[in-house]
Amino acid sequence: MSKKALYLLGIAITIILGTFLYLKFCCNCCEKTTTDITPKTVTPTVTEPNFVPFVLNGPGLNYQTNDNLKFLKNSAKLIMPVSDSVTTGIDNLKKFLEANPKQKITITGYATSDETNSTTFENLGLARANDVKNYFVSKGLLENQFSTKGTIIDKWKMSGDTLLGPAEYLFEAIDSTATSNDEWSALKAKINADPLILHFNTNKSSEKLSDIEKQKVTDIAKYAENVKDAVIVVIGHSDNVGNRDSNIVLGQKRADFSKNYLSKNGIDNARIETQSKGPDEPIGDNNTAEGKASNRRTVITIK
Description:
Elements: H1 3-36, E1 54-58, E2 61-65, E3 70-72, H2 84-99, E4 103-112, H3 124-138, E5 146-153, E6 158-159, E7 162-164, E8 167-173, H4 181-193, E9 196-199, H5 211-226, E10 232-237, H6 244-264, E11 272-278, H7 289-295, E12 297-302
Parallel strand pairs: 4-5, 10-11
Antiparallel strand pairs: 1-2, 3-7, 4-8, 6-7, 9-12, 10-12
């Protein structure tokens, strides 16, 4: 075989061998690369929001922030301090209500069914609504533009042992003709015909009220809320043990205690008058223990 033929044969063998090696190694590499870059489908994790927003949504007002008022479990007292964003919302609400004096808002407070109500209110939700209202009033908002409700539910959003914003705000237009003067007069007559009477042990007081007594407090608060010039009169009485002067002082202390109790339950402190009759107006026989007990009392009426 000539040198030229051998040269051409070598070239042919080189081309064939190169093609074989390319197909074996380079194409496998390309296939592997294609497999590696195939996108994978990842299912996103859905998490529950860790906030309950503070929302004020009425005609002409729409404010919302992810922060909120907070309460400890089993407690009716707001956790202080309140955040700046909520305070800003309350300031906006104040301006809105000043510009719309006929606007009324119902505050609904919530509590869970496993919480303990240690307040004098019908339920813990109502106690929370009243505390929110009192906080608004402390910020300069008018008490007579708010009413309160309480609702018990199975659960509420919590962070540890703290309930996040267990209150809602319903904006309602005040209908000045909805309740006539005759109806408020009838409520006043009912309160005065069967007044709230709080009894006291000797030199001691108690905030434990019966359901009937709690309802009377509710009626007084409702009347005071809707009749702007209403004045609540609290008169303290005593038995005849000791001298008259000391019993006058004791009767006044009982009247002041009752005033403080009414104030804590939503009645404006400035609209409550107190006085003492001491032992001068007994309703029971001071010669018996039972009679003395009935004389140790405060009587609460509408002026």
